[in-house]
Every structure is written in C-alpha cells, then in structure tokens.
Design a protein that fits this description.
- It is a single chain.
- Helix 4 runs antiparallel to helix 8 and helix 5 packs antiparallel against helix 7.
- The protein has a two-stranded antiparallel ribbon with strand order 1-8. The protein has a two-stranded antiparallel sheet with strand order 2-5. Strands 3-4 form a two-stranded antiparallel sheet.
- 27% of the residues are buried.
- It is mainly alpha-helical and 247 residues long.
Length: 247
C-alpha cells in the first residue's frame, strides 16, 4: 500500500508540475493562462503533501529517507522554511535582479513593441509587469527542476543531504548529481523558451546581447547556469532542517 501511494504521489506531482509549466510558458503574453499554470503547479505540490501524510503514518520510524523538518517553532516560520516555498522566494529574488540587469540587451518586447526611449507611467508599469513575470517564471522553472530531481532521490530534501537512486540505501547518490540534473533541466527548458519566444517576436535583442544561432540569448542561459545551484545552496543554508529525534 505504501509503495503504491509513493508511486501515485510521484506521478501526480510530476504530471501536474509539467502541465503547469507548459501553461506558464505558453501564457507568457496572457496573464490568465500564466496564473492557471501557477495554480496547477501549486496543486501538484499540495497533492504531494496530502499524499505524504498517510505514507508517513504507515512507515513511522521505518521511513527512508528519514523525514526532516525545519528547525523552527512558529507555524508561519515552518511554512516559509519548506523547501518549495524557499526555492520560489529565493528564485524570484535572485532572478528578478538578473532580469532587470539585462534591460540594455533588449530593444523590444511584447511582439516587437519598443519600450526604450519612452518615459510614460504606462510604459514603466509595463516594464515592472514584464520583469516580475519573467522572474516568477524563472523561479517556477527552478522549482519544477527541484521537483523532478526529487523523484530521482524520492526525497524533498535531496539538496541538503543527497540520498539514494530512487530512494534506495544500496545505491547512494550524492547531492551534486541532483544539482547538475536540476541545472540541465533549467537550461534545456530555457533554450526551448528562448527559441520559441524569438520566433513569436515576444522580444528583440540589442547589439549588446551575445547570442547563439541568433535566437538564443547567452545572458539568460548564463543566469540559469548559476541560479539553480545558488538558490538551492541558499535554501539549504536558511532552512536549517534536521531529522526529528527518535526514542
């Protein structure tokens, strides 16, 4: 029964996260579709949490990998120190400033409509809207990579302590393998997004943007070569999770 629940939990989480990510990417220019994708991703995380409750009750002290919990007393602090919450918050923070730093490397956005050279309130609001959406997409991309990688370890805390392949004690898997997998997932997805968005003329590069095959901007790719590991390491540092004491 426990094994079946684990399989169901993993399948539901991965399927909903992938579907949600597709809605997010395809909804870059349509906010309702973007928020629908975010809602589907959150539903995947929530369903995983709910399915974990009976699994923990059945396994008890036999659970492997052993459960961990944030070292915090207040319920709000425990919520904020959950891996998924920290990854989204830190991912948004780091990637927002990275996105803003790339402003001079673009000459147009939103199907070629130029925004440089104008100083209107509407254009500034459009600016903020565009970059917070891009930063949120980056954060959700890192979260999705984390959730996919967690299926390899069968552990939400793989980036803290490593683990085993598919949760096995006999097949140890260090954490750095997961960091590499998460980074590759993010970069591969971003390259697809860059090509797709360029073809749809969602933006245009300035001469300052280094590109690969004209369509792929190298500074966005460089950002997601760094930020997944940076976000996961910062989350590991802040979370201060520990295994509960046993009698």
């Amino acid at each position: 029964m426990t094994k079946t629940l684990k399989v169901v939990r993993g399948v539901v989480r991965v399927v909903l996260v992938v579907i949600g990510a597709w809605f997010v990417v395809s909804g870059l220019a349509h906010l309702p579709r973007l928020f629908l994708g975010i809602g589907i991703i959150l539903a995947g995380i929530l369903s995983s949490v709910l399915l974990s409750i009976p699994i923990r009750k059945q396994e008890g002290d036999r659970a492997w990998p052993p459960p961990m919990r944030p070292d915090a007393g207040h319920p709000l602090a425990r919520f904020l120190l959950q891996p998924e919450v920290l990854i989204v918050l830190l991912g948004f923070f780091f990637n927002f400033w990275w996105e803003v730093s790339q402003i001079p490397m673009y000459t147009g956005i939103n199907r070629g409509i130029p925004y440089f050279g104008e100083n209107t309130v509407e254009m500034k609001l459009f600016f903020v809207q565009t970059f917070w959406r891009a930063a949120l997409l980056d954060a959700l991309l890192i979260l999705g990579a984390h959730l996919l990688t967690s299926q390899i370890y069968q552990d939400r805390y793989w980036f803290v302590r490593g683990g085993g392949f598919l949760g096995s004690r006999e097949r140890p898997l260090p954490a750095w393998v997961g960091y590499l997998v998460a980074t590759l997932v993010c970069v591969a997805f971003l390259i697809y997004l860059e090509i797709s968005s360029y073809d749809q003329q969602l933006w245009e590069y300035s001469r300052l943007m280094p590109t690969l095959w004209t369509k792929i901007g190298l500074t966005p790719v460089g950002g997601l070569l760094i930020s997944p590991s940076l976000v996961l390491l910062a989350a590991r540092r802040l979370m201060q999770a520990r295994e509960p004491e046993r009698d």
